[in-house]
Automatic annotation (TrEMBL):
PANTHER family: NAD(P)H NITROREDUCTASE YDGI-RELATED, NITROREDUCTASE. One of its GO terms (molecular function) is oxidoreductase activity. Residues 15-204 form the Nitroreductase domain. The keyword Oxidoreductase applies. Keywords: Flavoprotein, FMN, Oxidoreductase. Its cofactor is FMN. The keyword Oxidoreductase applies. This is Nitroreductase domain-containing protein. It holds the Pfam family Nitroreductase. Belongs to the nitroreductase family.
Length: 229
């Protein structure tokens, strides 16, 4: 099968992308930052409603917030997500979750039984893995699963646009767990009409960070796709 240059570019992006959990301090220029979020606006959505809302925090303010959020989480701040975050993984899903965790801990040299090491690795989520930028991603509180599909597509679009500019990222469900602290930082009222679904830390990859050696695999096609004729 011949491959067009467009396909080649797309496949390189898809195959070359991985979640990055260690960043240099270098910030992204304002123009590029806006360009990235502008391009991600091309994401399709149900009835073109575009229900995503991104709150982008950059530079010193991002690092200040990371420090205070990580400290709050470490000292036991209560987690009060805006929506039901029950994961409910079972069977093969649970196995993939475990494999993913071992891939990450393995690359960081954290042993299976090392609870302290795992706790510290988990806490890095709230330090935004050292990133100089974080975006919290929200949608209206009254919206449910149908609209969350749109936000998921937006996230992947944003993720790939970043990647195409050499900007690395990690989408983080963990950043949905303390929405009140996020609203406080953003100056939003506690009863704000938006629910915070997740966050995405981003910036330039620190290639020397052990966490960035993590690679994940995907299931065989037949596990996820059934073809009918
Ligand atoms: C919706 C969503 C939530 C995620 N939440 C987290 C998270 O809280 N912390 C984290 O380190 N990685 C998180 N990830 C990254 C996944 O672990 C990662 O995408 C997956 O293991 C596949 O690896 P790859 O992105 O390197 O291909 C999340 C990814 C998605 C799409």
């Amino acid at each position: 099968m011949s491959i067009t240059p467009q396909q080649s570019d797309l496949f390189a992006l898809l195959e070359g992308r991985y979640s990055v959990r260690g960043f240099t301090g270098q910030t992204i220029e304002k123009d590029l930052l806006e360009e990235i979020f502008q391009k991600a606006q091309q994401a399709p959505s149900n009835c073109n409603t575009q229900p995503w809302q991104a709150y982008v925090i950059s530079g010193e303010r991002c690092r200040r917030f990371a420090k205070s959020l990580a400290e709050a989480v470490a000292s036991g701040a209560p987690s009060k997500p805006d929506f039901d975050v029950t994961l409910g993984f079972f069977e093969e899903y649970r196995q993939r979750q475990v494999d993913c965790a071992y891939a990450l801990y393995g690359s960081m040299g954290i042993e299976r039984g090392d609870k302290v090491g795992r706790g510290a690795a988990m806490l890095r989520n709230y330090d935004f893995f050292g990133a100089p930028h974080v975006a919290f991603i929200a949608m209206p509180k009254s919206f449910g699963i149908v609209n969350a599909l749109d936000v998921g597509i937006y996230l992947q679009t944003l993720n790939l646009v970043m990647e195409s500019h050499g900007v690395s990222s990690c989408i983080q469900g963990a950043l949905a767990y303390y929405p009140d602290l996020v609203r406080k930082e953003l100056g939003l009222p506690e009863d704000d009409s938006m629910q915070i679904l997740c966050g995405i830390s981003f910036g330039y990859e620190d290639t020397s960070h052990a966490a960035n050696n993590t690679r994940t695999v995907r299931a065989e096609l037949a596990e996820n796709v059934a073809f009918y004729e």
